[in-house]
Structure formats: structure tokens, C-alpha cells
Amino acid sequence: MTKLYFLKIENAVYYSELFARKVLGQWLGVDGSSLSIGINEFGKPYLRDYGNIHYNIAHKKGAIVCAVSDKPVGVDIEGVKNFNKRVAERFFTQNEQDYIFARKRNQDLRFAKVWTRKEAYVKWAGKGMTIPFNSFDVLKLDKSNVFIRTEYVGGYIISVCYSWHFGRVALHAAAKGGTGRE
């Protein structure tokens, strides 16, 4: 099972490792400050002493999200805001661009959804930015292998990517305000 933990906080960059250690400590039933964390050659963090536990963390100004699983996992978070059309044209497949620009309403939300799904996917794969964003389509992934779930929580879009074969994902959020929006 995968769990997703969300915290709305000022200075998210500073607190992200502390938050991850607290979440991982709770998950494992140990003191999180004692955990030995490594970074793979592509920048993905891992637990040195718990090879069967995977986690990923993302932060945006004012928020931190951490996903923990017994299989590879990737997570990303973005605020919904105006976007640059050229970014979509450069990094997204034609199908993803068509999805974003299909209607004027909520283009910013659809852009954030596609962007966070792409980030979560490359983080799940553990290869970082060596996978070109325009080389895969997050709206047409092979669902026999991987699943991406996207939620709107506390003013942020959060996407978590995980291996399909282990079941479901549980999303847990702790945020001030915020309502769901599709």
C-alpha cells in the first residue's frame, strides 16, 4: 500500500527532509532522525537500511508532500497558476497539448495536472530528468504497469505515480482549507 502525506507550511524547502524523516519514522515505527538516507545517481532518495520501503518527496512554496510505499513511487506538487503555452509545446506530447487546450476553462488546472503527472512518473522511474518529458504521454500510460493518481488538495495539484500491481493508494492530507476541483 502507498500513503501520501501532505503538509501546508512556510519554508517548505527547509522542512522537507524533517517532514520526510517524521513520516518515514511513523511508517516504520522507528525514530526518523536515525534513518540513513541515500541518493541514487539520478537524485532519487532511498533508505539505506530499508530496501523494501520506497519514498519520494516534493515541495512547493508553502507545501510539502511525501509518498511512502513498498514499491517504487514518485510524487509531485504544483500550485495552480497561469502557465506559459511554450512550456506545454516544448515538453508535452501533442495529445497532452490537445487535452490542455481543448477548452479555455481550467487550462491552468489541466496544465498543472499533466506537469505533476510527468514529474511523478520520472521520479517513479528513478531516472530523473534523463527521460525527456515529450517522450511519453501521461494520459496514455500502460496501465498494466503503472498508475498515476492526481488530487486537488489545499490549492495544490498533487500527483503520485506507483506500480499498479500492488493495489491501491491512500491519500492523506492535512491542509488549511482547500476544496476538490476537477
From TrEMBL:
Its cofactor is Mg(2+). InterPro entries: 4-PPantetheinyl_Trfase_dom, 4-PPantetheinyl_Trfase_dom_sf, P-Pant_transferase_sf, Ppantetheine-prot_Trfase_dom. Residues 72-149 form the 4'-phosphopantetheinyl transferase domain. It comes from the Bacteria. One of its GO terms (cellular component) is cytosol. Keywords: Magnesium, Metal-binding, Transferase. GO terms for biological process: fatty acid biosynthetic process; lysine biosynthetic process via aminoadipic acid. GO terms for molecular function: holo-[acyl-carrier-protein] synthase activity; magnesium ion binding. The keyword Plastid does not apply. PANTHER family: 4'-PHOSPHOPANTETHEINYL TRANSFERASE SUPERFAMILY-RELATED, PHOSPHOPANTETHEINE TRANSFERASE. This is Phosphopantetheine--protein transferase. The lineage of its organism: Bacteria, Bacillati, Bacillota, Clostridia, Eubacteriales.
